[in-house]
Amino acid sequence: MKITNLYAVQRERLLARPMRNAQGATDRRLFTFVIVETDQGVTGIGDAFGDPLLMPEIIAKRLAPAAIGMDPLDLDGLWRQLCASSPFWETAGSVMCGVSAIEVACWDIRGKCEGRPVCDLLGGRKRDRVEAYASDLHWEEPQQMADLARSYVQRGFRYVKTHIGAVGEQENDLRRCEVIREAIGPDVGFLIDINTAFDLETALARGRELEAFDPFWYEEPLPPLDYHGHAQLRQELSMPIVTGENLYLREGFEPLWQADCCDYVMPDILRCGGLRQTRDICHDAVSHNVIPSPHNFSSGVGLAATLHLMAALVETQLLEFDPTGTAIYEEMFLEPLLVHEGMVTVPTEPGLGIRFDV
Predict the structure, then answer these.
(1) Handedness of CA 221, 190, 336, 265 (dihedral sign)
(2) Does the predicted model carry a pTM greater than 0.90?
(3) Which of 30, 155, 210, 237 is deepest in the core (most CB within 10 A)?
Protein backbone atom coordinates (compact mmCIF):
# COMPACT_ATOMS: atom_id res chain seq x y z
CA MET A 1 0.00 0.00 0.00
CA LYS A 2 1.22 3.49 -0.86
CA ILE A 3 0.15 7.01 0.01
CA THR A 4 -0.95 8.64 -3.24
CA ASN A 5 -2.25 11.98 -1.99
CA LEU A 6 -2.14 14.00 1.22
CA TYR A 7 -3.76 17.38 1.70
CA ALA A 8 -5.29 19.75 4.23
CA VAL A 9 -8.87 21.02 4.35
CA GLN A 10 -9.91 23.79 6.73
CA ARG A 11 -13.32 24.33 8.27
CA GLU A 12 -14.38 27.34 10.36
CA ARG A 13 -16.97 27.67 13.10
CA LEU A 14 -18.11 31.15 14.13
CA LEU A 15 -18.90 31.47 17.82
CA ALA A 16 -22.04 33.02 19.27
CA ARG A 17 -19.96 34.14 22.26
CA PRO A 18 -16.18 34.66 22.36
CA MET A 19 -14.09 31.82 23.74
CA ARG A 20 -11.60 33.29 26.19
CA ASN A 21 -8.73 32.05 28.29
CA ALA A 22 -5.88 33.79 30.09
CA GLN A 23 -3.97 34.33 26.84
CA GLY A 24 -6.73 35.97 24.80
CA ALA A 25 -10.08 35.51 23.09
CA THR A 26 -11.43 34.40 19.73
CA ASP A 27 -14.79 34.65 18.00
CA ARG A 28 -14.13 31.65 15.72
CA ARG A 29 -12.61 28.20 15.68
CA LEU A 30 -10.59 27.05 12.68
CA PHE A 31 -9.91 23.34 12.15
CA THR A 32 -7.29 21.89 9.78
CA PHE A 33 -8.14 18.34 8.71
CA VAL A 34 -5.55 16.19 6.96
CA ILE A 35 -6.72 13.64 4.41
CA VAL A 36 -4.40 10.75 3.53
CA GLU A 37 -5.36 8.78 0.39
CA THR A 38 -3.88 5.45 -0.73
CA ASP A 39 -3.60 3.40 -3.90
CA GLN A 40 -6.01 0.85 -2.44
CA GLY A 41 -8.82 3.33 -1.96
CA VAL A 42 -8.54 3.49 1.82
CA THR A 43 -8.52 7.01 3.24
CA GLY A 44 -7.43 8.18 6.70
CA ILE A 45 -8.35 11.34 8.55
CA GLY A 46 -6.12 13.45 10.82
CA ASP A 47 -6.33 16.85 12.50
CA ALA A 48 -3.39 19.25 12.42
CA PHE A 49 -3.87 21.02 15.75
CA GLY A 50 -1.18 23.65 15.22
CA ASP A 51 -1.21 27.25 14.06
CA PRO A 52 -4.11 27.30 11.57
CA LEU A 53 -2.45 30.06 9.55
CA LEU A 54 0.62 27.89 8.98
CA MET A 55 -0.78 24.36 8.78
CA PRO A 56 -1.98 24.27 5.15
CA GLU A 57 1.45 25.38 3.89
CA ILE A 58 3.30 22.97 6.21
CA ILE A 59 1.15 20.09 5.00
CA ALA A 60 1.32 21.02 1.30
CA LYS A 61 4.97 22.05 0.99
CA ARG A 62 6.84 20.14 3.66
CA LEU A 63 5.02 17.01 4.79
CA ALA A 64 2.96 15.87 1.80
CA PRO A 65 5.98 15.62 -0.55
CA ALA A 66 7.80 13.55 2.07
CA ALA A 67 4.86 11.21 2.75
CA ILE A 68 3.56 10.51 -0.76
CA GLY A 69 4.85 7.15 -1.95
CA MET A 70 5.36 5.84 1.61
CA ASP A 71 3.53 2.87 3.07
CA PRO A 72 0.98 4.22 5.59
CA LEU A 73 1.16 0.96 7.55
CA ASP A 74 4.92 1.32 8.07
CA LEU A 75 4.74 3.81 10.91
CA ASP A 76 8.45 3.51 11.71
CA GLY A 77 9.46 4.24 8.13
CA LEU A 78 6.96 7.04 7.78
CA TRP A 79 8.13 8.59 11.05
CA ARG A 80 11.76 8.54 9.91
CA GLN A 81 10.80 10.09 6.58
CA LEU A 82 8.78 12.89 8.13
CA CYS A 83 11.01 13.65 11.10
CA ALA A 84 14.53 12.50 10.36
CA SER A 85 15.09 12.80 6.61
CA SER A 86 16.53 16.31 6.90
CA PRO A 87 19.59 17.57 8.76
CA PHE A 88 17.30 20.17 10.33
CA TRP A 89 14.96 18.28 12.60
CA GLU A 90 11.69 19.86 13.76
CA THR A 91 10.77 18.22 17.05
CA ALA A 92 8.07 20.64 18.22
CA GLY A 93 5.59 23.22 17.07
CA SER A 94 3.31 23.21 14.06
CA VAL A 95 5.47 20.87 11.99
CA MET A 96 5.14 18.23 14.70
CA CYS A 97 1.39 18.91 14.80
CA GLY A 98 1.32 18.11 11.08
CA VAL A 99 3.31 14.91 11.64
CA SER A 100 0.87 13.98 14.42
CA ALA A 101 -2.09 14.46 12.09
CA ILE A 102 -0.56 12.20 9.44
CA GLU A 103 0.33 9.54 12.02
CA VAL A 104 -3.23 9.50 13.38
CA ALA A 105 -4.62 9.26 9.84
CA CYS A 106 -2.38 6.25 9.21
CA TRP A 107 -3.73 4.50 12.32
CA ASP A 108 -7.18 5.18 10.88
CA ILE A 109 -6.09 3.55 7.61
CA ARG A 110 -4.58 0.54 9.39
CA GLY A 111 -7.75 -0.04 11.40
CA LYS A 112 -9.89 0.14 8.27
CA CYS A 113 -7.59 -2.28 6.45
CA GLU A 114 -7.73 -4.79 9.30
CA GLY A 115 -11.40 -4.23 10.07
CA ARG A 116 -10.59 -3.34 13.67
CA PRO A 117 -11.05 -0.23 15.82
CA VAL A 118 -7.85 1.62 16.68
CA CYS A 119 -8.10 0.73 20.39
CA ASP A 120 -7.65 -2.94 19.44
CA LEU A 121 -4.44 -2.02 17.61
CA LEU A 122 -3.15 -0.08 20.63
CA GLY A 123 -3.29 -3.08 22.94
CA GLY A 124 -6.94 -4.06 23.09
CA ARG A 125 -10.18 -2.51 24.30
CA LYS A 126 -10.09 -2.58 28.11
CA ARG A 127 -13.25 -0.51 28.58
CA ASP A 128 -16.20 0.61 26.49
CA ARG A 129 -16.80 3.99 28.14
CA VAL A 130 -14.50 6.67 29.51
CA GLU A 131 -15.37 9.22 32.18
CA ALA A 132 -15.14 12.81 30.97
CA TYR A 133 -15.05 16.30 32.40
CA ALA A 134 -16.91 19.23 30.85
CA SER A 135 -14.21 21.59 29.57
CA ASP A 136 -15.96 24.81 28.74
CA LEU A 137 -16.16 27.47 31.43
CA HIS A 138 -14.43 30.34 29.64
CA TRP A 139 -14.84 33.90 30.83
CA GLU A 140 -18.31 35.26 31.26
CA GLU A 141 -19.98 37.04 34.12
CA PRO A 142 -19.65 34.88 37.26
CA GLN A 143 -23.32 33.95 37.46
CA GLN A 144 -23.41 32.92 33.79
CA MET A 145 -20.46 30.61 34.40
CA ALA A 146 -22.08 29.21 37.53
CA ASP A 147 -25.33 28.50 35.72
CA LEU A 148 -23.49 26.76 32.90
CA ALA A 149 -21.45 24.69 35.35
CA ARG A 150 -24.64 23.65 37.13
CA SER A 151 -26.16 22.57 33.81
CA TYR A 152 -23.22 20.25 33.17
CA VAL A 153 -23.59 18.65 36.56
CA GLN A 154 -27.30 18.20 35.86
CA ARG A 155 -26.30 16.41 32.64
CA GLY A 156 -24.28 13.96 34.71
CA PHE A 157 -20.72 15.29 34.56
CA ARG A 158 -18.92 14.79 37.86
CA TYR A 159 -16.06 17.12 36.86
CA VAL A 160 -16.05 20.60 35.28
CA LYS A 161 -13.20 22.88 34.22
CA THR A 162 -12.92 26.64 34.16
CA HIS A 163 -10.35 28.97 32.61
CA ILE A 164 -9.18 31.99 34.59
CA GLY A 165 -6.00 34.03 35.05
CA ALA A 166 -6.10 37.09 32.79
CA VAL A 167 -4.23 40.20 33.85
CA GLY A 168 -6.35 42.40 36.11
CA GLU A 169 -8.99 39.75 36.72
CA GLN A 170 -7.93 38.51 40.15
CA GLU A 171 -11.01 39.65 42.09
CA ASN A 172 -13.42 38.65 39.34
CA ASP A 173 -11.68 35.27 39.03
CA LEU A 174 -12.06 34.59 42.73
CA ARG A 175 -15.72 35.52 42.47
CA ARG A 176 -16.10 33.22 39.45
CA CYS A 177 -14.58 30.33 41.36
CA GLU A 178 -16.72 31.05 44.40
CA VAL A 179 -20.02 30.97 42.55
CA ILE A 180 -19.03 27.99 40.40
CA ARG A 181 -18.15 25.98 43.48
CA GLU A 182 -21.44 26.97 45.08
CA ALA A 183 -23.33 25.96 41.93
CA ILE A 184 -21.74 22.52 41.50
CA GLY A 185 -21.59 21.60 45.17
CA PRO A 186 -18.73 20.16 47.22
CA ASP A 187 -18.60 16.70 45.65
CA VAL A 188 -18.01 17.67 42.00
CA GLY A 189 -14.41 17.90 40.81
CA PHE A 190 -13.51 21.51 40.03
CA LEU A 191 -10.61 21.84 37.57
CA ILE A 192 -8.91 25.25 37.18
CA ASP A 193 -6.84 26.05 34.08
CA ILE A 194 -4.52 29.08 33.85
CA ASN A 195 -3.22 28.41 30.30
CA THR A 196 0.42 29.20 31.23
CA ALA A 197 -0.30 32.84 32.14
CA PHE A 198 1.35 33.22 35.58
CA ASP A 199 4.89 33.70 36.75
CA LEU A 200 5.96 31.71 39.80
CA GLU A 201 5.22 34.42 42.37
CA THR A 202 1.72 34.97 40.98
CA ALA A 203 1.04 31.26 40.64
CA LEU A 204 1.91 30.69 44.29
CA ALA A 205 -0.11 33.63 45.57
CA ARG A 206 -3.14 32.87 43.42
CA GLY A 207 -2.87 29.17 44.14
CA ARG A 208 -3.13 29.82 47.88
CA GLU A 209 -6.29 31.84 47.25
CA LEU A 210 -7.76 29.15 45.02
CA GLU A 211 -7.23 26.46 47.64
CA ALA A 212 -10.36 27.80 49.37
CA PHE A 213 -12.43 26.33 46.51
CA ASP A 214 -10.94 22.83 46.83
CA PRO A 215 -9.75 22.48 43.21
CA PHE A 216 -9.41 18.99 41.80
CA TRP A 217 -6.34 20.28 39.96
CA TYR A 218 -4.38 23.44 39.05
CA GLU A 219 -3.60 23.25 35.34
CA GLU A 220 -0.70 24.93 33.55
CA PRO A 221 -0.23 27.79 36.01
CA LEU A 222 3.25 28.41 34.55
CA PRO A 223 4.92 28.34 31.12
CA PRO A 224 5.35 24.73 30.00
CA LEU A 225 9.15 24.65 30.22
CA ASP A 226 9.28 25.90 33.82
CA TYR A 227 9.70 22.42 35.29
CA HIS A 228 11.27 23.56 38.54
CA GLY A 229 8.60 26.21 39.04
CA HIS A 230 5.91 23.56 38.72
CA ALA A 231 7.84 21.42 41.18
CA GLN A 232 7.88 24.27 43.70
CA LEU A 233 4.14 24.75 43.30
CA ARG A 234 3.65 21.06 43.89
CA GLN A 235 5.63 21.28 47.11
CA GLU A 236 3.95 24.40 48.48
CA LEU A 237 0.31 24.00 47.42
CA SER A 238 -2.22 21.40 48.49
CA MET A 239 -3.86 20.92 45.07
CA PRO A 240 -2.56 18.58 42.32
CA ILE A 241 -0.43 20.24 39.62
CA VAL A 242 -1.09 19.49 35.94
CA THR A 243 0.90 20.31 32.80
CA GLY A 244 2.08 18.81 29.51
CA GLU A 245 -0.29 19.84 26.72
CA ASN A 246 2.39 22.09 25.20
CA LEU A 247 5.19 19.52 25.16
CA TYR A 248 6.26 17.36 22.23
CA LEU A 249 7.60 13.83 21.79
CA ARG A 250 8.39 11.28 24.46
CA GLU A 251 11.80 12.84 25.05
CA GLY A 252 10.19 16.24 25.63
CA PHE A 253 8.37 14.90 28.68
CA GLU A 254 11.49 13.53 30.35
CA PRO A 255 12.19 16.79 32.25
CA LEU A 256 8.77 16.49 33.90
CA TRP A 257 9.67 13.12 35.38
CA GLN A 258 13.13 14.28 36.39
CA ALA A 259 11.79 17.37 38.17
CA ASP A 260 8.94 15.44 39.84
CA CYS A 261 6.79 18.46 39.07
CA CYS A 262 3.26 17.25 38.30
CA ASP A 263 0.57 14.93 39.58
CA TYR A 264 -1.26 14.63 36.24
CA VAL A 265 0.20 14.96 32.76
CA MET A 266 -1.73 15.98 29.63
CA PRO A 267 -0.08 14.91 26.37
CA ASP A 268 -2.14 15.88 23.33
CA ILE A 269 -2.22 13.20 20.61
CA LEU A 270 -2.59 15.84 17.90
CA ARG A 271 0.42 17.83 19.10
CA CYS A 272 2.99 15.62 20.80
CA GLY A 273 3.65 13.26 17.91
CA GLY A 274 0.60 11.05 17.44
CA LEU A 275 -0.86 7.96 19.02
CA ARG A 276 2.33 5.95 19.50
CA GLN A 277 4.17 8.83 21.12
CA THR A 278 1.23 9.53 23.42
CA ARG A 279 0.94 5.86 24.37
CA ASP A 280 4.64 5.80 25.29
CA ILE A 281 4.34 9.06 27.24
CA CYS A 282 1.42 7.62 29.21
CA HIS A 283 3.43 4.49 30.02
CA ASP A 284 6.35 6.66 31.16
CA ALA A 285 4.03 8.75 33.31
CA VAL A 286 2.68 5.71 35.12
CA SER A 287 6.20 4.42 35.76
CA HIS A 288 6.94 7.78 37.46
CA ASN A 289 3.72 7.76 39.51
CA VAL A 290 2.09 10.46 37.41
CA ILE A 291 -1.49 10.01 36.20
CA PRO A 292 -1.95 10.51 32.42
CA SER A 293 -5.02 12.51 31.39
CA PRO A 294 -4.67 13.29 27.67
CA HIS A 295 -5.47 16.81 26.52
CA ASN A 296 -8.26 17.02 23.94
CA PHE A 297 -9.85 20.24 22.70
CA SER A 298 -10.05 20.00 18.92
CA SER A 299 -12.35 18.15 16.52
CA GLY A 300 -13.96 14.73 16.38
CA VAL A 301 -10.63 13.37 15.14
CA GLY A 302 -8.92 14.24 18.42
CA LEU A 303 -11.89 13.04 20.45
CA ALA A 304 -12.03 9.69 18.66
CA ALA A 305 -8.26 9.16 18.88
CA THR A 306 -8.25 10.03 22.58
CA LEU A 307 -11.18 7.69 23.27
CA HIS A 308 -9.37 4.81 21.55
CA LEU A 309 -6.16 5.48 23.47
CA MET A 310 -7.95 5.69 26.81
CA ALA A 311 -9.95 2.55 26.06
CA ALA A 312 -6.67 0.66 25.59
CA LEU A 313 -4.85 2.27 28.54
CA VAL A 314 -6.89 1.98 31.72
CA GLU A 315 -4.20 3.92 33.59
CA THR A 316 -5.43 7.08 31.88
CA GLN A 317 -8.06 9.13 33.69
CA LEU A 318 -10.58 11.82 32.75
CA LEU A 319 -11.31 12.52 29.11
CA GLU A 320 -11.42 16.21 28.27
CA PHE A 321 -14.79 16.73 26.58
CA ASP A 322 -15.85 19.90 24.77
CA PRO A 323 -19.59 20.42 25.42
CA THR A 324 -19.79 23.87 23.78
CA GLY A 325 -21.33 22.73 20.49
CA THR A 326 -18.69 24.81 18.68
CA ALA A 327 -16.38 21.95 17.71
CA ILE A 328 -16.83 19.69 14.69
CA TYR A 329 -17.60 16.74 16.93
CA GLU A 330 -20.78 14.69 16.72
CA GLU A 331 -21.18 14.89 12.94
CA MET A 332 -17.84 13.11 12.41
CA PHE A 333 -18.77 9.87 14.19
CA LEU A 334 -20.05 6.92 12.18
CA GLU A 335 -21.98 5.76 15.24
CA PRO A 336 -23.91 8.24 17.38
CA LEU A 337 -21.62 9.92 19.90
CA LEU A 338 -23.06 8.69 23.19
CA VAL A 339 -22.52 10.80 26.31
CA HIS A 340 -24.47 9.67 29.36
CA GLU A 341 -23.91 10.58 33.01
CA GLY A 342 -20.50 11.99 32.14
CA MET A 343 -19.39 8.79 30.40
CA VAL A 344 -18.46 8.79 26.68
CA THR A 345 -18.76 5.59 24.64
CA VAL A 346 -15.73 4.42 22.64
CA PRO A 347 -16.37 3.88 18.89
CA THR A 348 -16.53 0.30 17.65
CA GLU A 349 -16.24 0.87 13.89
CA PRO A 350 -12.95 0.04 12.11
CA GLY A 351 -10.24 2.68 12.32
CA LEU A 352 -11.09 5.77 14.31
CA GLY A 353 -14.78 5.32 13.56
CA ILE A 354 -15.16 8.75 11.98
CA ARG A 355 -15.89 10.29 8.60
CA PHE A 356 -15.16 13.58 6.88
CA ASP A 357 -17.23 14.87 4.00
CA VAL A 358 -14.70 16.86 1.99
Answers:
(1) positive
(2) yes
(3) 210
